[in-house]
């Protein structure tokens, strides 16, 4: 019989498990025992003790390295107090409280002691609401605080997002989950690791209200729960999951039960699903126990695993997924096998581990995503409800705009630059990027520029844009003062990039240079500068490499890894680079391989962390890849763009690792790529309008010291440009200056066609479309077709500034369609359809519709450009024939 206790309804078995893991963490974090565990010497209630033990038991090693026990005790006490203060506190079951309210972490964000701060923002607003109403109200508050913008992989904290007033979906959902938990509502971040039907991923929020999990789009409120522009795409997903920091028992489907966390599969709540079973065999038909099985789909020009699972004692692994295609890759003991599957075809699939060398030549295949599906019918929203909702959206955007107006402006930045005798454009650039942190950045410049001249500005310019919003003077002072003393005779660009700059990868930046300088004796520093491999040797001897203690690889701060004396390989590599820079040794992570290196003479040497040392430099082990244009490619062939339609990856122990180069890199034929010797696979792909991807995998080898020429080819895809209808040239639109024009007047009579799109400027899908059009501005301008972006009165809000898109192609215009009267001519009864903005159309020279797409889908601008080009080429060919 299970014995219940009074502490969070934990049974004896669960308490014993928590206690065992807690004791294990004590051993792991011995080097920080005082900072982490002395809080247990304080007078604690039984609830406080077990809440802390629960958090410590499943805490990722990153947090043990970077934070102290006082932070976690403060968090626990605030959370327990709030549970007693909110009206639904006693209605939330203990198991949901432990797993979805108590946790302090949502994603990979830096941790702030923010629970009471967020509670104070929301308590009064939600005190008299039901749980469902409180969830909606919290999202209106989130909307007041932040809106969407794309950014890099580092996840900023909720307080930083509020300071910045914008962030990507993973950051918006981190804020929303933190806000909901702050008022005692169970919440979790949900995400699809990769979409199957388009390139990208997405994160949103599920929250629990009186027995039911509901979803919302973070910072993008809707009138009701379980609504969002991403609803249609979720019905085409292959996996939607969340990670729970514990041995979570369900009741949801469990995808992966790790020692320290559980991944649960939420796809059932969004899309049709099917459980498939993969049997992994060797060449004589024997099942393989413990093989790693990668469930891969195409996204961002690579085959990306959405989950990696081990086979059981029968050599099998099961996975619940959607009705699309997958590539299954199984690896064990230096052997591997691969198979493309269509989930709808069967329940059971076999993969044979019959490869030890990669294939030769090239292989063509298609990957088809799940089909589009209609959602369930919902009750219509009344005009009164919608008007009230739109008013709240408008008010929220006005609140956010008023806050953004407090940031330092261009004239203030120029005044500061003049005072400090710095270039105004450069000062304004860093001040503009710092946004809500602009006064902190300005204060740093003002305090340090008189003494250090241009160097404070150069330090700021060495950082990534996101760093400027959460890096403060104490950190900037450390890296400025700690670096200048190490300048030596290095070339200026080497010194700035590889000594002065504190940013290594995606870790949180903190002050560490002067700490590291004090940790080593003068003689040790001299030895390491003369021979950095001695520092590598010391790290290999004294630090423990542990890949099993955290899923947050490379997220520990350098100082945290140093103090804990252990970490994952990426975190230790970041620590090595940081120590080197602190001691005046230029160091980096290799731009495409992400391996640690130090500068010796005029070449980069690999720091062989976790390996037996030798003295080969990178250049001795490297060859080059020269990409060759396809001489037989037709005029409609795609323009090669890295991470957009092609990548290449190196084979390592049966797994291909994609090399990192700037996304959208176009100058891929100009010079060879320097890469490590080895076996490589290049993927080129064309995504069709329905989401199907036509892939070509090309295999080649690179030998040390040699150049390998590889022709970059795409499959020959015939562009289908059907006539989908025609439009009325007399449809009227309002220009921003108040005048009216017909569609015919806007499109003109030059016979170049047009792109017309109804957009929702504040929402993520429309922001993606505008960004894509701007990125393709040069090619759109070459075609010369007008681009017409249309905004309705209810979307033309306080924060929308038509002049804020300077990168749009020449000939672009932003106009009004007040009540969407003209949209009705393109899409009758559009308001009854679930699909969201943007609504995009391409017209030919005869005002015929040749392309249409709606809702969330990356690549719309590229598809529209292909259609415009195809129509133009067809017209040019026809003119030549007539002549």
Explain this structure to me?
There is one protein chain. The protein contains 29 helices and 36 strands. Helix content is 35%, strand content 22%. The chain has 883 residues and is of the alpha+beta class. α1 (12-28) crosses α3 (46-57), α8 crosses α10 and α19 crosses α23 (569-582). A hairpin with a 2-residue loop joins β13 and β14 (335-342). The longest helix has 23 residues, at 860-882. It folds into four domains: 12-265, no CATH class; 410-613, no CATH class; 620-711, Immunoglobulin-like (Sandwich), CATH 2.60.40; 725-882, Glutaredoxin, CATH 3.40.30. The model is unreliable at 613-619 and 878-883 (pLDDT under 50). The strands form ten sheets. The protein has an eight-stranded mixed β-sheet with strand order 29-36-35-32-33-34-30-31. The radius of gyration is 28 Å and the shape is globular. InterPro entries: Papain-like_cys_pep_sf (IPR038765), Transglutaminase-like (IPR002931). This is Transglutaminase. Residues 161-220 form the Transglutaminase-like domain.
């Amino acid at each position: 019989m299970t014995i219940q206790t009074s502490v969070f309804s934990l049974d004896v078995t669960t308490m014993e498990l928590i206690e065992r893991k807690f004791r294990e963490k004590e051993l792991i974090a011995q080097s920080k025992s005082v900072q982490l565990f002395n809080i247990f010497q304080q007078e604690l209630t039984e609830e406080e003790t077990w809440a802390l033990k629960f958090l410590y038991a499943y805490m990722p090693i990153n947090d043990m390295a970077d934070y102290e026990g006082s932070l976690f005790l403060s968090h626990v006490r605030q959370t327990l107090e709030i549970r007693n203060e909110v009206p639904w506190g006693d209605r939330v079951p203990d198991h949901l409280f432990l797993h979805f309210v108590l946790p302090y972490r949502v994603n990979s964000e830096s941790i702030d002691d923010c629970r009471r701060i967020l509670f104070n923002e929301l308590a009064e607003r939600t005190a008299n609401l039901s749980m469902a109403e409180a969830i909606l109200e919290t999202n209106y508050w989130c909307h007041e605080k932040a809106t969407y913008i794309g950014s890099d992989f580092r996840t900023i904290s909720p307080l930083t997002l509020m300071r910045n007033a914008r962030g990507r979906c993973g950051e918006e959902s981190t804020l929303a989950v933190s806000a909901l938990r702050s008022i005692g509502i169970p919440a979790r971040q949900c995400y699809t690791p990769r979409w199957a039907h388009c390139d990208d991923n997405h994160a949103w929020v599920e929250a629990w209200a009186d027995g039911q999990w509901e979803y919302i789009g973070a910072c993008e409120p809707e009138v009701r729960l379980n609504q969002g522009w991403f609803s249609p795409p979720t019905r085409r997903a292959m996996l939607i999951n969340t990670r729970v920091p514990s041995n979570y028992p369900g009741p949801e489907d469990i995808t992966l039960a790790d020692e320290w966390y559980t991944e649960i599969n939420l796809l059932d709540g969004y899309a049709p699903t099917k459980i498939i079973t993969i049997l992994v065999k060797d060449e004589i038909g024997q099942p393989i126990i413990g093989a790693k099985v990668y469930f891969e789909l195409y996204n961002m020009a690579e085959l990306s695993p959405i989950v990696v699972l081990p086979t059981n004692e029968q050599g099998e692994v099961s996975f619940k997924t959607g009705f699309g295609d997958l590539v299954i890759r199984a690896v064990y003991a230096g052997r591997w096998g691969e198979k493309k599957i269509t989930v709808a075809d069967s329940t059971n699939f076999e993969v044979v581990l019959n490869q030890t060398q990669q294939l030769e030549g090239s292989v063509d295949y298609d990957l088809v995503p799940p089909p589009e599906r209609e959602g369930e019918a919902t009750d219509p929203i009344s005009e009164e409800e919608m008007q009230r909702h739109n008013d709240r959206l408008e008010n929220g955007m006005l609140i956010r705009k008023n806050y953004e107006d407090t940031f330092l402006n261009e004239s203030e930045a120029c005044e500061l630059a003049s005072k400090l005798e710095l270039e105004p454009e450069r000062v304004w650039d860093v001040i503009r990027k710092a946004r809500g942190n602009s006064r902190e950045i300005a204060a740093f410049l003002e305090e340090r520029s008189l003494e250090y001249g241009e160097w404070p500005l150069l330090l700021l310019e060495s950082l990534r844009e996101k760093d400027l919003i959460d890096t403060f003077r104490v950190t900037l002072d450390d890296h400025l003062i700690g670096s200048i003393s190490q300048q030596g005779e290095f070339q200026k660009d080497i010194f700035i990039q590889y000594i002065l700059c504190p940013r290594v990868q995606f870790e949180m930046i903190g002050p560490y240079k002067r700490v590291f300088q004090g940790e080593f004796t003068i003689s040790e520093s001299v030895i390491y500068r003369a021979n950095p491999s001695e520092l590598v040797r010391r790290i290999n001897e004294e630090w423990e490499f542990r890949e099993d203690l955290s899923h947050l690889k490379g997220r520990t701060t350098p100082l945290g890894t140093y103090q804990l004396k252990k970490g994952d390989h990426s975190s230790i590599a970041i620590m090595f680079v940081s120590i080197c820079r602190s001691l005046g040794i230029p160091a980096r992570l290799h731009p495409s391989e992400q391996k640690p290196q130090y500068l010796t003479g005029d070449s980069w040497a690999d720091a062989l962390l976790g390996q037996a040392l030798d003295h080969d430099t990178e250049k001795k082990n490297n060859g080059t890849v020269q990409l060759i244009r396809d001489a037989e490619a037709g005029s409609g062939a795609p323009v090669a763009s890295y991470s957009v339609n092609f990548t290449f990856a190196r084979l390592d122990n049966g797994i291909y690792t994609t090399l990192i180069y700037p996304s959208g890199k176009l100058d891929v034929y100009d010079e060879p790529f320097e890469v490590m010797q080895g076996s490589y696979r290049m993927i080129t792909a064309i995504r069709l309008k329905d989401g199907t991807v036509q892939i070509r995998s090309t295999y080649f080898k690179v030998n040390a010291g040699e150049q390998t020429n590889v022709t970059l080819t795409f499959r020959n895809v015939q562009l289908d440009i059907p006539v989908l209808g025609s439009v009325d040239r007399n449809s009227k639109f309002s220009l921003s200056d108040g005048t009216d024009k017909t569609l015919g007047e806007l499109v003109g009579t030059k016979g170049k066609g047009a792109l017309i799109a109804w957009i929702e400027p504040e929402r993520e899908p429309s922001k993606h479309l505008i960004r894509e059009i701007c990125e393709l501005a040069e090619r759109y301008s070459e075609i010369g077709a007008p681009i017409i972006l249309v905004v309705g009165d209810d979307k033309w809000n306080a924060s929308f500034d038509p002049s804020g898109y300077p990168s749009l192609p020449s000939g672009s215009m932003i106009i009004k369609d007040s009540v969407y009267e003209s949209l009705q001519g393109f899409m009758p009864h559009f308001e009854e359809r679930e699909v969201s903005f943007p609504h995009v159309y391409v017209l030919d020279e005869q005002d015929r519709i040749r392309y249409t797409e709606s809702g969330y889908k990356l690549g719309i601008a590229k598809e529209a450009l292909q259609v415009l080009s195809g129509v133009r080429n067809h017209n040019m060919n026809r003119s030549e024939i007539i002549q």
